[in-house]
Amino acid sequence: MKENYDVIIVGTGAAGLYCALNLPERTSILMITKQEADQSDSFLAQGGICMLRGEDDYNDYFEDTMRAGHYENDKKAVDLMIRSSNSIIRDLLQRNVTFARTPDGELDFTREGAHSQPRILFYKDITGKQITQTLLEQARTRDNIEICEYMTMVDLISDDNICGGIVIMDEQNEVYPVHASNVVLACGGLGGLYKNSTNFPHIAGDGLGIAMKHQVVLEHLDYIQIHPTTLYSRKPGRRFLISESVRGEGALLYDKNGQRFTDELQPRDLLSQKIFGQMKKDETEFVWEDMRPLGEDTIMKHFPNIFHRCLEEGFDPRKEPIPVVPAQHYFMGGIKVDLGSRTSMKGLYACGETSCNGVHGKNRLASNSLLESLVFARRAADDIIFGKKHEPCRLGSVDMKPYEDKEAVLDGYHKMVLKEIERMKMSHE
């Protein structure tokens, strides 16, 4: 690891990797991640990635996204994402990302909750892994991209609202200032702050707290999506997600008496409310999801990962319903960015789940996350290449003493984020 790079990218999920791969090979890039490079939430995305299916689908796709977001979405951002989807998918195919195909070789599409028609490409039930692993393998072949694992960002380097790099800490608690004229925060959401979450526990909103410390503008920190169906378990740790597309393919939800109690294809927030209400009424810790209507062939071919995980928990979805419970899943708020993924600090960009570009509004439409991440990661790369250049950060030496206790530093950031979430919640009540 050097002291100076052209670009530093924090995070090795789909957004961070795609940003790096869209920068010229003459650009020196440092990517850091708190754990191993494949321990990002992008690898966990099961359902798929949306794609505009011709001009006749535009109005429906736009309306589906807006309705799911309670019409709080930024219309320009939604339009940009939808209009960019075909070029993104073409590029992924050129990068040898594999998607499901029909028997005659055409791309296969599935439908998920709150979508008016099938427009979601998928690969089994590990679409996020298929996309992100392909991008990671390509990034590792690039001589200009250096990926450092087990490195934690503990601060930004900035002066006069101009970003000049980051402060990072390694596993031995050694602290290093690393300088760059452009920094991209692609460090994920905040699931690690919650007891029940589908996210990796180490992804806990560090970047949000660091941005707050530097008065970078944030938005809608209380817009936190609960996924309605995660596999119920008494074991501690990350909750396993039962994909939206399972219900899109025909799975049903039952109460404790085996009676269907709601429409399974409602937007996630509304369905979660229905499930919580049914659990309260039944005095149970879960409801039942029945995959048997899909048929064994669909279960085994489309959802093999879900099938095997259910077996590990003692349930065979081919023969019986499985217990499911809502859990924290996705973050729609974050560091406020414009259509070029620029933050309020010069030289600082944000993309992926840590950013808030307005696409999702108050609630994310299923399978828009991977597409949104890739679209706005490419926008960040384009702005770094073609955008207006800013004056460099003139900060000299950086005092490393405040960062000696990493856990205390990160805990401070986490408390800042949680406090702001509660403040925003109270202001809306």
UniProtKB/TrEMBL annotation:
Needed co-factor(s): FAD
Organism superkingdom: Bacteria
Gene Ontology MF term list: L-aspartate oxidase activity
Record EC number: 1.4.3.16
Keywords: FAD, Flavoprotein, Oxidoreductase, Pyridine nucleotide biosynthesis
Residues of the FAD-dependent oxidoreductase 2 FAD-binding domain: 6-370
Name of the protein in its database record: L-aspartate oxidase
